[in-house]
Each structure stands twice: as C-alpha cells, then as structure tokens.
Design brief:
single chain; 475 residues; alpha/beta; TIM Barrel; 15 strands; 40% helix; binds zinc ion
Amino acid sequence: MNSGVKYFFLRMGSNTEKQYVKKTGTLFSGLLVKTNYFESAPGMLSGMFLKFSSLKPSRGYIIDPITYVFSLEPEFIRSWQKVDVDKAEKRLRDDLRLGTREKIPRSWIRKIKYPSKRQKNKIEIYNIMKAFRKLADLYFSDNIASVIGKRALAKEDFKDQTLISFVKNVISYQETAITSRYDTSRYSDFKDIIPSPLMILSPYFLINDEDDLKFMVKIWNLFDSQYDKGNGAIVLQCTINFLEDNLQLLLDSLSTIRKNNLFLWIDQFDEEIASSTQLEAYVKFVTQASSSGKQVINLYAGGLSPLLFPFGLAGIVNNVGYGLQRGAEPVKGGIPTAHFYIPTLHIREQVLATYDLLIRNNIGSTKEEFYRDVCSCPVCKEGIKNGVKDFVPFYGVLDFPKSRPDSTKKYPTPEALKRCTFHFLFSRLKEYSWAMNATREEVIHRLTTEINIWRIKKDHLQRLKNIFKKMPSRI
Ligand SMILES: [Zn+2]
C-alpha cells in the first residue's frame, strides 16, 4: 500500500446487497466480506471478485477472517435448524463433536411450531451454523475445534504450537479461499489469473485488558514472521475504554510489530455519542500510530471518520446498509426501518426523525437550501424537488408488505429502502473524496460551517472541532 493514499472499502454482507455492489462497487477501493458470508456464497462472491479484478483499474477484495467470534458466547454462532427427526441427534453429535457418553441438553431440540406438510417429519435443533463449523475446522487444531459451539474460546485454550498453526491456517485460508475453488485440472491454466486478496489480515480477538493485549501481541508477532509480504495487515479490535486508558501502552506494543497496515475496530464506540475524551483517544491513536508509520484503516468507521484523513487516518470501511459502527457482539436484525444519512451531521437517523430534525432546525425549506444544507446527491436531486416537504413522501414511503399478506402494519417499501441506501452510499463516497484531499484547516472550516447549519443535535461536531484545533496536521 502506498503512503498518502486513502482507502474506502465497501463491506458486502448479504446477497440482497448485490444490486448496490453492482452499481456502486467500482467507485470504492475494493470489496470486503467476512469469512462466514464468503463460506455461504463462495461461488457468487468468487465470480464477483474475478469480475472486479478484471476492471481497469482493477478493484481488489479482502476476506475478513473474523476469528473473534469464536471467543464470544456460542449463541452467536448457533442457530435453530430444521432436520429430519431421526437424524436430529446424530447431527448435533457430529456437528458439535459430542462424545457418545455426552448428554444432549433437552433445550437443544424442539418441535416446529407450525409445521408445513413437508415439515411433518422434521424437528428443530440448536446447532452450530454450517459456515462456522467449517471455519472452526479450518482454523483450529482438533482439540480446540471440538469445543467450538459449546463454549467461548479462551486464551488458555492455545498452547504455543496450536497458536502457531492457528495463525498459519488463518493466513492460508485467505490466500486460497478463491484459488482452491478453481484448483482442478480443468482450471489449472486459469489459476494464475485468479486474484489473491488485496490484503491478508491477521487473526484477532477483542482486547479488553492487558492480558488480552499480550495475547494479541503474540499473535501479531507470529503473523509478522509467518507472512512477510507487504500486503499483510494486523487487526486491532479493542474496547474504547481500553484504548482510552492504555493509549501509550497500545502504541508502544504496536511499534514492535513490523507490519504497517493496521485495521482498527473500536468496540463500544459511537462517534456521535462518545465523550470528548473517548473521541480524543481515537484521534490521538490515529495521529500517533500514523506518525510512527502505521496505515490505520477503520474497519467500522462512523460518520466523522473521513474527517480524520488529514490527521493520519488511511482508510475506512462501511457496510452497504445498516449502522455505521458496531460492537463486537452482533445484534439480531429486526424489521427493516428506513434510515437517512445526514451528511452535514455525519449521523444516520430514521426517516421520520430526520424529517423532524429538519423542521425543528428550519433546514431545507426550498430545494436550493436542501441541496446546500443537507445533500445534493443524485438520489436527493431526483426526489427533492420542492424542499423538505418532499422528504417523507420520497424517502419514507410506507405500505403493507407484499411478503407478509397478513400484516396489519405498514413498513418501508423496498423502493424507499433502496433510495435511502443509494443516498447513503453516494453521500459517503462524496464525503470520502472530499476528505481525502482536505487539509486540517479545511476540515475545521467544514465543521464550523456544519455547526452553523444546525441549531440542535450538533454537539458531536463541536466536540470533534475542539479536538482537531489542538492537533497538528499530518499533511
Ligand atoms: Zn442525498
């Protein structure tokens, strides 16, 4: 990776996001997918990566190994699965590596509530998800793989040798995820043109205390020695409290690692509601890590993150949909609600809440004012012809869902969700391309302008501006 270049990767998380990736994917520096998603749609994703790499200039891909999920409670990698009644017990025993004498808890098997005709002889089992079973077997040695799904993995589970092979397996998984799919005699000529990932990521687990850090330093060192190519990247996943309380220790530990590419994921950190000291710890980390030569890319960048480019941040990653930042523990998705990204506030709000904010701040009453103070992306230009009064009819359309004929409640239409998503992608791309060449002064000036647009809801902008004013620029 070149220093000075800024990156914006798009994380694709499901097949329904394909339509967005097809239309806007080439505008990003590359695509990123998590291993469990890759395992559930390897053919489609391999084809897509192949296509992206054939473009000029080519767009690469990254497979995030998400090793940390194995240290979470097993509920995050298990799900209810329908199987034939007579196969239920064997499936659980095989997939969860249960010994013949081990009892299967009754709570892991249940009847299907409203079985269809075809499900008459079926039952539900609380099993490990297929992709995670496969990953666990590829990543870990047998003794560790056999506890996966039953309990959270602990640092103590690893001996020196099993840690070495774990790091090696995670590297080789990413290197061969796609090439191994085509590795047959039929494709042997083809193999050379199959692109390998843009970057290879280190394994990672959440850091919440000094012992966790020591363990991660061990992993990073092993990664350093086992993967010596320039596109290796270490991943740092830590809580905001740890980052704030141990900033110097963290920076010192990182300075002993040879790899310069660093993916950062701050857990329990929301750029909008973070305190001044938390936000400052993030900015300081980025500035200081980058002055010691690290290229920091935020794996779950919030709305404010592009503004950190002049202060040393090297890149950001965003999902196609959903929230901007997230915690290590996944949140189960509910009914989709349409959210609108407000570019001049750098936050995302529900459509009606956004409308309310626009009215209360007296913003966007004419279309000219809307384009100036809110957004002028192609989607907004198409739908906002008369200012804010077009906002809800365009972005907040509700209807009875076609997929749920018995619903008594209206939900955002697919059309409304699509508009919100495209607006989100376009406005983030615009923010990114503006910020990649911006100076410290320009970013501070932009914050001042935005603070003046909004009467309320702008405290986070003020907090960031105060921090930036104390910081030297990296450019
Ligand atoms: Zn827009």
